[in-house]
Recover the amino acids of this structure.
């Protein structure tokens, strides 16, 4: 009887450690296995199925991360929200110099096989600007929006 209770408890623990918004059947098993291999120790995993990707939000080492997988189960990239103090100093300095009158509304790091990129959304009362930096190089404007 003890073995059955222990086995039932382990099954329940494993099955609840991964939540699937799209239902477990909609996520490619290769993506799930790749995630479990790549991010050993991840907790609170929540999967979402997009039209041509899978995303899994999870916690690891005190950080909230999101990994994106292709429909064939290959890791495409990982993102995490960061604070401006986590940017390379040259990028912090450039933001301060060129966008001092803007405030940061979103800032995240994207890591993939090509390296690390940073994306920042800056706003004023009249405008919104989205910037990108690849591998710590200068910021480039991705999008500029005038507010009404």
């Amino acid at each position: 009887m003890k073995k059955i209770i222990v086995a039932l408890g382990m099954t329940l623990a494993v099955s609840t450690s991964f939540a699937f918004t799209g239902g477990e059947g909609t996520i490619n098993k290769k993506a799930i296995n790749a995630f479990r291999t790549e991010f050993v120790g991840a907790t609170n995993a929540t999967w979402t199925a997009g039209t041509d990707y899978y995303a899994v939000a999870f916690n690891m080492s005190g950080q909230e991360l999101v990994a994106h997988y292709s429909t064939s189960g290959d890791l495409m990239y990982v993102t995490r929200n960061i604070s401006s103090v986590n940017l390379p100093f040259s990028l912090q300095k450039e933001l301060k110099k060129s966008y001092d009158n803007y405030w940061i509304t979103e800032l995240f790091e994207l890591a993939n096989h090509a390296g690390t990129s940073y994306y920042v959304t800056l706003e004023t009362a009249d405008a919104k600007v989205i910037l990108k930096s690849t591998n710590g190089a200068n910021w480039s404007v991705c999008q500029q929006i005038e507010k009404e």
User: Anything to note?
Assistant: The CA atoms of residues 79 and 110 lie 4 Å apart.
